[in-house]
Design a protein that fits this description.
Shape: globular
Radius of gyration: 19 Å
Structural class: alpha/beta
Order of helices and strands: HHHEEEHHEHHEHEEHHHEHH
Oligomer: single chain
């Protein structure tokens, strides 16, 4: 080995830690987004728009569909693929009208007795002044309360980034699933590092401390099951990733179908009341 080869070898960046590797995979530019899963898993998807109060929010997609011939309602966060789509979708960061549109769709589902599947994929709720002026915190809080009261089965799936209240506003389910390389956390690693270490560059260390991987959350009792992904991540084989998710949805929808409205509400309540017991 000559001197140039040794210098090049020494200059290679260190391998990312397991938690940070999951963050990078969850943010992979080619990772399937909600509409990719909707296209592959559901049929006859009919999107609804607007919150009947202010306007429409493209960061949240909601509508009626069919899952293996059964009627269902899908509510999902959508990031966008290229720069134009990302700007249109506000980089997957919903505003209050998005959460109110989502709630409108879920209340329609309850009215007509249709199960609900939500797909979580957001860095967080939009923190802009306009969103705050229109009641961002109130919209999220209302969704949490009303989802707890829904009399139909609710399955929440974290497919990419589960960013704080922005994701939790669609995450109150009877069953909470998480894709193998998704992350779900109260704060982004960069923001956490800025607060704890006063240095956003220490995001990798923060990611390890946040316990944001699917394995961590399953161990803590915050999710119910991990949906496996193809080797290398969902972006390597989106069709297989969607099929894996389909199988999990089929199983859990079948299990929840045996419960009536009050039982579903009680089941959801008890599930979330138990969260955090491992810390007592």
């Amino acid at each position: 080995m000559d001197g140039n080869e040794a210098t090049t070898e020494q200059a290679l960046p260190p391998e990312p830690g397991p938690a940070w590797r999951r963050v990078l995979l969850a943010r992979h530019p080619k990772r399937p987004h909600s509409l990719d899963y909707i296209e592959r898993i559901f049929t006859n998807f009919q999107e609804i728009h607007g919150d009947r109060a202010f306007g429409d929010d493209a960061a949240i997609v909601a509508g009626m569909a069919r899952f293996e011939d059964a009627p269902i309602v899908v509510v999902a966060e959508q990031k966008g693929r290229d720069t134009k789509q990302r700007m249109y979708r506000n980089f997957g960061m919903p505003k209050p009208e998005g959460y109110r549109k989502a709630l409108r769709a879920m209340q329609l589902a309850a009215k007509f007795g249709r199960p609900i599947v939500t797909l979580l994929d957001t860095p967080g709720a939009y923190p802009g002044i306009d969103a705050e002026e229109r009641g961002q915190a109130e919209a999220i809080a209302r969704n949490l309360r009303e989802m707890a009261r829904l009399s139909v089965p609710v399955i929440a799936v974290c497919i990419g980034e589960g960013g704080s209240g922005g994701a939790l506003a669609l995450g109150v389910g009877n069953v909470v699933l998480m894709l193998e390389n998704a992350v779900y956390s109260v704060i982004s690693p960069e923001s956490c590092a800025s607060i704890i270490y006063r240095d956003s560059g220490k995001a990798e260390s923060a990611a390890a401390s946040l316990r944001l991987t699917a394995e961590d959350l399953l161990q803590l009792g915050l999710i119910d099951h991990i949906v496996p992904e193809p080797v290398g991540g969902a972006q390597e084989d989106p069709a297989l990733a969607a099929e894996n998710l389909r199988l999990h949805l089929r199983r859990h929808l079948s299990e929840l179908a045996s419960m009536n409205g009050p039982e579903l509400i009680s089941h959801r309540y008890e599930k979330f009341r138990k969260m955090g017991d491992c810390f007592v």
